[in-house]
Design a protein that fits this description.
Layout lengths: L3 E2 L6 H9 L3 H11 L7 H32 L3 H15 L12 H14 L14 H21 L5 H20 L5 H17 L4 H10 L16 H18 L5 H13 L7 E2 L13 E2 L4 H11 L2 H13 L14 H6 L13 E2 L1 E6 L4 E6 L2 E6 L4 H4 L13 E5 L2 E10 L12 E4 L2 E13 L16 E2 L4 E2 L8 E14 L5 E8 L4 E8 L4 E3 L3 E3 L6 E4 L4 E5 L2 E6 L16 H4 L10 E8 L2 E7 L1
Parallel strand pairs: 1-4, 19-22
Antiparallel strand pairs: 2-3, 5-6, 6-7, 7-8, 8-9, 9-16, 10-11, 11-14, 12-13, 14-15, 15-23, 16-22, 17-20, 18-19, 20-21, 21-23
Helix pairs in contact: 1-11, 3-4, 3-5, 4-5, 4-6, 5-7, 6-7, 6-8, 7-8, 7-9, 8-9, 8-10, 10-11, 12-13
Length: 607
């Protein structure tokens, strides 16, 4: 097992200095050591080989579906990844499929279909018409597959290699001239172009790479990238920057990956899940998993001699194939390691992973606390208070607190006042206040007075304008307003016995409200004050006393209840932004509501 020790981190800067930072002399020494390939990690290679053989069998069973998806829907990604996986076991001498003639038919069919469905501009659709970034995903995979087959140089794959080469050459100009949608797409396109240029040089390729890189890497002070998404950090940005560092001689990019991996240490749960409540992408309400970062931790551990990163890489391998790997099954990783033989070197000596810390990432307004197997997240960094919008690419998850004690997991705590249908509480910031963390917000809604004489129109046709809640042909900007306000302050304190105390102060207006606790499915609720909420599945109201949620030997106790009645109904109002389009903000799980009415002062304990 991996050794662990108590580790205290008080800020993102201190964390980076303590774990992720490596001096130039250390990096140079580590790079020199990495060039010695004699000490291979045979256990790592054996693990990958077994996983790849199993994965290849699954690909052979499913690749017809990937071909259908490519032909009918223009989506190339699954077909290209299948080709990469089959190519890796075909060339790998330790694989049960090494130079297996039975693979040549599927490999050829995959390559031929990818070539047939490639547009004249070298692109595929993948859900977006003639998409350079979506094409880049597949081109990266095909580049690796081609490199492995070319190095193997088996006569039977000559025609296959020729087909893949045509695809790669054809894609280059489209990637070099095409645009992107999101921040991470820039680095993905650079990654694909850098690989093509290394084998088939074209001056337009490095020009486009340099143009994208000249925009600067979108990394926040705490180590997250601008999208704050563990999915895109692990699956796109970090792998792309490592590739560009290698193929485009931009070694400064290693520092960005190093900082992101350091930040990721503090958002990782004991069971390998990765906190994503702060994300600006679709994973802000979905589970993500540590193994997506596996080879990145391994690469920087070997390159830098970083024992903490090595411990994380070793932990992922130790947990084996029973853990959830997310988007990339472990068998798909063999191709990357064959392409980068240095990744198969032995890891440096392991250091203890941080398991006792309070870490504040100010750039994401996220606090992470871990005490062994107990963890908590405090979040006050949604984009809604500043932008007043809910849209793809914005952080809008109203969950402001999460905690877990072993297998007992509180996935979400939210506060939902019924105030002009403005929706749940979303904090306007997160700051330290004495021994507590302070979350706060003030929301306002207006009643509008008659228009001043100079803005009146005889035809009554006023511009369609935004009230802040809704739109109407009322010329809102020119009207005097009479405001109603609701102020909320929440103080979150860690208690001496490893629990939490949350103090709520809601004032200014008198409205019903509900605290919504959502527990992960799989456990049992108990408490005399629990009552089922009529018409709502797996939803209860805690009217009095404390209740508990138990999974095996792990238990979270919470409360107290705060009564019931017609003035404090057990209702969670998602807000007009959601209900107008019949949207839902209800988290999945077992929900407990604690209701009240403002003005309200209430103290909740969780232990």
């Amino acid at each position: 097992m991996i050794a662990r020790r108590t580790f205290l981190a008080t800020s993102a800067t201190a964390t980076a200095a303590g774990i992720g930072a490596v001096s130039g002399q250390q990096a140079a020494a580590a790079e020199g050591a990495a060039s010695d390939k004699t000490r291979r990690d045979e256990g790592f290679l054996a693990f990958l080989t077994e996983a790849a053989d199993a994965r290849a069998a699954a690909v052979l069973d499913a690749y017809d579906d990937h071909l259908t998806e490519l032909r009918d829907r223009g989506k190339a990604r699954a077909a290209a990844r299948s080709l990469r996986t089959l190519a890796s076991v075909h060339v790998h001498t330790a694989s049960a499929h090494h130079h297996d003639g039975a693979l040549l038919g599927p490999l050829t069919e995959l390559a031929d279909t990818l070539a047939e469905e490639q547009f004249d501009d070298g692109l595929w659709d993948q859900g977006a018409v003639h998409s350079p970034p979506d094409t880049a995903f597949s081109i990266v995979d095909l580049n690796i597959a081609y490199a492995l087959l070319d190095k193997d140089d088996e006569r039977s794959t000559a025609e296959l290699r020729s087909t893949i080469e045509r695809i790669l050459r054809k894609a280059g100009p489209g990637l070099a001239g095409g645009g992107v949608h999101t921040a991470n797409h820039r680095w993905l396109v650079c990654s694909a172009l850098s690989r093509i240029h290394r084998r088939w040089p074209d001056p337009s390729y490095p020009r486009r790479i340099d143009a994208w890189l000249a925009e600067g890497i979108d990394q926040l002070a705490g180590g997250e990238y601008s999208e704050r998404s563990p999915t895109y950090s692990a699956v796109v940005t970090n792998p792309a920057l490592l590739t560009v560092a290698r193929f485009h001689d931009r070694r400064d990019l290693y520092a960005h990956v190093r900082d992101n991996l350091t930040a990721s240490l503090y958002v990782t749960e004991p069971n390998g899940e990765v906190e994503s409540v702060h994300s600006r992408r679709q994973d802000q309400a979905a589970l993500r998993y540590l193994p997506e970062f596996w080879l990145q931790y391994r690469e920087l551990a070997i390159r830098d001699g970083n024992g903490t990163f090595a411990a994380m890489a070793a932990l992922i391998q130790e947990r084996g194939t029973q853990q959830t790997f997310g988007e990339t099954p472990p068998g798909d990783r063999l191709a990357e390691v064959l392409d980068r033989p240095d990744l198969a070197r032995e890891l440096p000596a392991l250091r203890e992973l941080p398991t006792d810390f309070a870490h504040h990432d100010e750039s994401c307004r996220l606090v992470r606390v871990r005490r062994g197997e107990r963890t908590a997240s405090i979040f006050g960094g949604t984009d809604l208070p500043q932008l007043h919008a809910i849209s793809s690419g914005l952080s809008t998850n109203p969950t402001f607190f999460k905690m877990r004690k072993g297998a007992a997991i509180l996935d979400s705590l939210r506060l939902a006042p019924q105030f002009f249908s403005l929706g749940p509480f979303r904090s306007e910031g997160l700051e330290r206040r004495g021994d507590a963390w302070r979350l706060h917000a003030e929301v306002r809604a207006a009643f509008h007075q008659p228009l001043p004489r100079r803005h009146r129109r005889k035809d009554g046709l006023y511009p369609l304008t935004d009230d802040g809640r809704f739109w109407s042909a009322m010329d809102f900007p020119h009207r005097t307003k009479e405001y109603r306000a609701l102020r909320t302050e929440i103080l979150v304190r860690e208690t001496n016995h490893g629990g939490w105390e949350l103090s709520f102060d809601v004032s200014e207006s008198a409205v019903p409200l509900a605290l919504e606790l959502c527990f992960r499915r799989g456990g049992q609720l108990a408490g005399e004050g629990l009552e089922p909420v009529a018409g709502e599945d797996d939803t209860y109201q805690l009217v009095s006393g404390e209740a508990s949620y138990t999974v095996g030997e792990d238990r979270i106790t919470f409360g107290p209840g705060n009564g019931k009645g017609g003035k404090q109904p057990p209702v969670v109002e998602p807000g007009e932004r959601y209900t107008w389009m019949n949207g839902s903000l209800t988290p999945d799980g077992i929900r407990v509501l604690i209701t009240g009415r403002s003005p309200l002062t209430y103290r909740m304990t969780l232990s």
